[in-house]
Design goal:
The protein is built from eleven helices and no strands. It is an all-alpha fold. The protein has one domain: Vanadium-containing Chloroperoxidase, domain 1 (Up-down Bundle). Helix 4 runs antiparallel to helix 9.
């Protein structure tokens, strides 16, 4: 069912028309979200510098460390066998991200970020890197799907599957905190995450987490390393 939902979500976006005359449900949302935040960049100095800071490359490191902190919080509470199990789970999370990336490559969707898209149309837009002089990410020749958001969502739902709702909510905060800045700067469209990352994850995670697949791969890794499985 979730596979069909993911494919339907992607199809609903793929039939929309992007151009000088934005037509369809998703293009209108994308345009409105972009110009809402782009207008704020010119009106609010504090917002401008917050967006600039959260789109620096170093902020990507902070997002990784945030995920590592959530993972590590559970890791330190485990015994030796539990820690080995978590290491194998970490490998499976990475494997899931690689599988998700293959969908990106198979779909072969190339579209520029909204800043580049509207600039090419001759529409004046603000770029936070130019407004602040900081090397913030606000431009991309290919922004779909949102790889950053896709990987964060994968981590988030693995936390839900194995550690419950409280850890999921912590992971969800990381998703919002580290995905939204890309949308606010114009480096990504809203649908890069809401459609691109979401549709990939609906397909991939339904197979990995709603079937015994992830458990079996973890067990296989534990067996290969001659580690004892958790009872």
């Amino acid at each position: 069912m979730l596979n069909l939902l993911g494919m339907g979500l992607f199809f609903s976006w793929s039939v929309c028309r992007y151009g000088g005359d934005m037509q369809g449900f998703w293009p209108v949302i994308d345009q409105n979200v972009f110009f809402f935040f782009n207008g704020w960049l010119g009106e609010n100095l504090a917002f401008r510098y917050v967006v600039a800071f959260t789109n620096l490359r170093v902020f990507d490191t902070i997002s990784f460390l945030s995920m590592l902190a959530i993972f590590g919080w559970h890791y330190r509470k485990m015994d030796k066998a539990g820690r080995r199990w978590m290491l194998c789970m970490g490998v499976v999370i990475l494997l899931t991200a690689v599988i998700g990336k293959q969908f990106d490559l198979a779909w072969n969707v190339e579209r520029p970020s909204p800043t580049m898209f509207f600039t090419d149309l001759g529409t004046p837009v603000l770029r936070v890197s130019e407004l602040t002089g900081w090397p913030a990410k606000d431009w991309s020749s290919s922004s779909f799907p949102g790889d950053h958001g896709m990987c964060l969502l994968i981590f988030c739902f693995y936390m839900l599957r194995y550690f419950g709702w409280r850890t999921f909510m912590a992971g969800l905060m990381v998703v919002v905190l580290f995905s939204l800045p890309r949308v606010m700067s114009g480096a990504h469209w809203f649908t890069d995450i809401a459609v691109g990352a979401a549709s990939v994850n609906l397909i991939v995670l339904s197979w990995m987490l709603l079937t015994p697949a992830s458990d079996k791969i973890i067990a296989w890794l534990m067996k290969k390393m001659h580690w004892q499985m958790l009872s």
